[in-house]
Amino acid sequence: MEKSTRPDRTAVAGYSILSPRARARLAVKTASIPSALATDNTALNPELTKVLALIDLQSFDGTWNIDSEKPLLDLTGLDVTKSPPNGVSDEIWVTIVVLRFLEDRIPKEEDVWGLVVEKARACIQRYLGPGGDLQLLEELAARVVVEEGKTGG
Description:
7 helices; mainly alpha; two-stranded antiparallel ribbon; about 5% strand; single chain
């Protein structure tokens, strides 16, 4: 079997952004595309590749972790740890910023990330409790997504 000489487009800044599980999901999602058109699935839909990589970084409880800061920066172009509001943990803030990134920057892939965002919101709401203002935090995170998008995110 001859080794492919094509560059790996599923790597960002030296990080492999797709696990074997995510690669399999990408293959299923693009299986209906004729192979003559889809020489490289990730080149065909880089937004889907990003979404799957972000999903792969999500913790079981629905949050994104501050330990994933570098890969998240590479994938989103956002400094996800920038200015968390007082009283909000880094993990919850990172999660809110990522879910706003998905909603605001990659709305076309909602069929892929929809349940992931729903799970993240449920986790955030549990963290905030009944008196927590999730809407206000999402508005603050949306500003981060918009402002950093203007400066190169």
